[in-house]
Design brief:
This protein is an alpha/beta fold and 380 residues long. The protein is built from 15 helices and 13 strands. The relative contact order is 0.15.
């Protein structure tokens, strides 16, 4: 017996009303004319005229390809541009092979839903991205969280693991902005025979000699089984790749439902990724600039009574105030002054850890960061 539509709508409305009563109702919005302290466009590539021109020039070489991919890659959607780009991605990140996915979310779900098998054990950092947790929920392996960046907690759990063991982390965490202790994690995984999987979404572009990511910056390519490389952040485009051994690529082509049963990326997205990789090694100045500005903002905010800013040495900063209920009015006041800053509320972060999430970019200026710090002080 079907549920009458009106009752279903009432149920949905009640769910929305409950969330609004908690002060956590999400809404889509646009922002124009504000100073960007919100987006993931860390190096400014998403707005780069040079990148736009490179894409246009490169498009001429591939004008024989259709605008859309026309199907999944295992049917009609594969072409020489995919194959060339995956070889380029693998070489850039010092890996044997790479496989492109349609987004970072899809890559995490596509990898983590099939790599761990029934009888295996997965330990993931409790602060891992929702896409990683969603992928693991689809897996038949036993999955357990360990306390954020807590090596002792992880080691105690590793002692009781069964089957093939996986440890799943982010190199730079999307909400807290802090780094995983990758060297220590790699040593633990080697000690217990675990495979280390690292999501590099918020590290690619910012770390490494050419922006390869934190794994490469630390020389850990051989000790990490798989990396997720996401293009919607510092690289200013869209899509993602899983890099690792060739056997992993072959396995995903055969078993990853998120890869098999979806239309492949369109030509323009592939060209954007290819051209962003061409620019990435030249952005040393931008990498230095964004880190210097973030350090300046961190120091200024932590000198203010009643404000706590963390972490040190990150371009993703969390600003905490004594009363979380004042975060939304604070963000609204900052936006009225021209600064695009957003509050992050529960359930996106655990209750009690609500904060302003401030992201610094290479295109921001010292004047802008100083102005933002002063505005936060004035309205707190």
């Amino acid at each position: 017996m079907s549920v009458p539509r009106s009752k279903l709508e009432q149920r949905l409305l009640q769910k929305l009303a409950d969330r609004e009563a908690q002060g956590n109702l999400r809404q889509l919005r646009t922002s124009t004319g504000l100073v960007d302290f919100c987006s993931n466009d860390y190096l400014g590539l998403a707005r780069s005229e040079q990148l736009k021109q490179l894409i246009q020039q490169e498009a001429e070489k591939y004008k024989h390809l259709p605008v859309g991919s026309t199907g999944s890659r295992l049917l009609s959607g594969n072409n020489e541009l995919f194959e060339e780009l995956e070889k380029q991605v693998a070489a850039f990140h010092h890996a044997e092979a790479a496989l492109l996915f349609n987004s970072g979310y899809t890559a995490n779900v596509g990898l983590l839903s099939v790599l761990p098998q029934r009888g295996d054990t997965v330990f993931y950092d409790e602060a891992s991205h929702a896409s990683m947790k969603d992928g693991l929920r689809l897996s038949f392996a036993k999955t357990y969280a360990f306390r954020h960046n807590n090596l002792d907690d992880l080691q105690q759990k590793l002692k009781h693991a069964m089957g093939q063991v996986f440890v799943v982390v982010e190199s730079v965490y999307s909400m807290d902005g802090d780094k995983a202790p990758l060297q220590e994690l790699a040593s633990l995984c080697q000690q217990y025979g675990a495979a280390l999987v690292v999501d590099e979404a918020h590290a690619v572009g910012l770390y490494g000699p050419k922006g390869e990511g934190l794994v490469t910056a630390l020389g850990l390519e051989e000790q990490v089984f798989a990396r997720i490389i996401t293009y919607g952040k510092a690289m200013g485009c869209h899509g993602a790749a899983v890099v690792g051994p060739k056997v992993l690529r072959d396995f995903l082509v055969n078993f990853s439902r998120a890869f098999i049963y979806t239309t492949a990326l369109p030509t323009h997205d592939l060209l954007a990724i290819k051209c962003a990789y061409r620019l990435l090694p030249s952005l040393t100045k931008e990498r230095e600039q964004v880190k210097a500005l973030a350090s300046q903002l961190y120091n200024e905010l932590n000198q203010t009574s009643g404000i706590r800013c963390s972490p040190r040495d990150s371009i993703i900063l969390s600003v905490f105030v004594p009363d979380a209920k004042k975060l939304k009015p604070l963000a609204a006041s900052l936006q009225q002054e021209g600064y695009d800053v957003r509050p992050v509320m529960s359930p996106t972060v655990p209750e009690g850890s609500e904060r302003l999430r401030v992201i610094v970019h290479a295109f921001n200026t010292t004047t802008q960061t100083e102005g933002l710090a002063e505005a936060i002080r004035r309205h707190t």
